Amino acid sequence: MSDPLPYVLILYYSRFGATRAMAERMAAGVEACRGIEARLRTVPPVSPTCEAVDPEIPAEGAVYASLDDLRHCAGLALGSPTRFGNMAAPLKHFVDTTSELWLGGTLVDKPATAFTSTSSLHGGQETTLISMLLPLLHHGMVYAGLPYSETALMATQGGGTPYGASHLAGQRSDRPLDEHERQLTFAQGKRLARLALALHHRAGAPA
After folding, report:
1. Which of 42, 104, 138, 176 is geometrically suited to a Cys-Cys bond with 62, CB 3.0 to 4.6 A?
2. What parts of the chain have a pLDDT lower than 50?
């Protein structure tokens, strides 16, 4: 039996669907590379009411992430809408449960990236991406943004930053990904997949 393919974990939280659409586009970029798969996972919402319990399996979309999804990934993409220039609480809550992986150095030298969606063009895209970068650095991951060799970065009228893909969803969160945003999100997934494959094979090579 052949070994399972390495995978990039695309871990996101999406309330109205914009970040989910980005995650799916990034997954397409990952799977444009041969020899690696994309694994889409989400996180449940958090509630200030202790009695509120979410179903173990979401009604639609990706299933909820486990620590094992993160433990065994070859690369990681974190996606979140902005909450006052920061990542959303549900994603932060999950990230805060990863101490055992940090203690074991499980994610050291694995490539990672981030993506976000906001309702306004200057609604905190860059700070949200940076807020997701910080725990990745603490885990010893290798951060991969979007290089300016992606010419859509210079042409975009919506989202797109060198820190990672972004999307302008509009005040009603109903603006679809435009062509530049689609290009950049796809390119980010493809770049992450290439790096994950290279580092995965290097980690498995004899010293």
Report:
1. 42
2. 207
